[in-house]
Write a structure and sequence with these properties.
By secondary structure, the chain is mainly α. It has two domains: 49 residues, Arc Repressor Mutant, subunit A (Orthogonal Bundle); 135 residues, Tetracycline Repressor, domain 2, CATH 1.10.357.10. It is built from nine helices and no strands. Helix 1 packs across helix 2.
C-alpha cells in the first residue's frame, strides 16, 4: 500500500509540473507552484527530485500515463498495425496540444546527455509493455511478418516515434507533428504487415 501512495505522490508532482510548464513555460514555473498545484509538500518534492531541472527527464512518465489510458480504449477487433497507428496518433495529439516543443527538446537532450538512466529506453515502461502485448498478439495472429522478431518490430517502432519527435523539434515545429505522422506512420508500419497468403 505505501508503494501505491509513493507512486501517486511522485505522479502528482510530475503531472502538475508538466501542466504548469505548458501553461507558464519552464522558466515561469517555480517549485512552489508545482508543490501547490500537486497538493504535496516541499519535503515530498525534494524526496523525489533534486530541483526543477530533474523534472525534465520525467516526460516519459507523462507519456506512459497517456499510453495506460489509451490501452483501455483500444478496440480488440483492430489488428496490430491499426492499434499502433492509433497509439501514435493519440500520443502526438497530446504532444502538440499540451507539451511545448522546447520542453520536448529538453527531454530529448537530457536523454542524449544522460550518463545513467535513459527513461525513454527503459524496457519496463508502460510504453514498452503495451507495445510487447500488441506486437506479440499480432505475430501470434499472423498479422505481422514472421521474418522479424517482436523485439525488432518494437525497436523499429520506438525509433520511428523518437525520430519523428526529434525532427519536429529540430525543424522548430514548422509543420504539424500529428498531420505528418498520420500520413507517414501507416506507410512505415505497413512494411511490417504479413504478406497476403502467408
Amino acid at each position: 500500500m505505501p508503494r501505491k501512495n509513493t507512486r501517486n505522490t511522485k505522479g502528482k508532482i510530475i503531472s502538475a509540473a508538466w501542466k504548469l510548464f505548458y501553461e507558464n513555460g519552464y522558466e515561469g514555473t517555480t517549485i512552489e507552484d508545482i508543490i501547490f498545484a500537486s497538493g504535496t509538500s516541499r519535503g515530498s518534492f525534494y524526496h523525489y527530485f533534486d530541483g526543477k531541472d530533474a523534472l525534465l527527464g520525467t516526460l516519459a512518465y507523462v507519456f506512459d500515463e497517456k499510453y495506460a489510458k489509451l490501452r483501455e480504449v483500444l478496440d480488440p477487433e483492430w489488428d496490430a498495425v491499426r492499434k499502433l497507428i492509433f497509439l501514435n496518433h493519440e500520443l502526438f495529439v497530446m504532444i502538440e496540444d499540451s507539451i511545448s516543443r522546447d520542453l520536448l527538446s529538453g527531454l530529448l537532450s537530457t536523454q542524449l546527455q544522460a550518463q545513467g538512466e535513459k527513461h525513454l529506453l527503459d524496457r519496463n515502461r508502460t510504453y514498452f509493455r503495451i507495445l510487447r502485448e500488441i506486437i506479440a498478439e499480432g505475430l501470434a495472429k499472423k498479422e505481422l511478418r514472421k521474418d522479424c522478431t517482436a523485439s525488432e518490430i518494437i525497436k523499429a517502432y520506438a525509433m520511428w516515434e523518437r525520430a519523428l519527435m526529434y525532427d519536429w523539434c529540430l525543424c522548430g515545429g514548422e509543420y504539424s507533428l500529428v498531420s505528418y505522422a498520420d500520413r507517414m506512420t501507416p506507410m512505415f508500419l505497413e512494411s511490417f504487415r504479413a504478406p497476403a497468403g502467408e
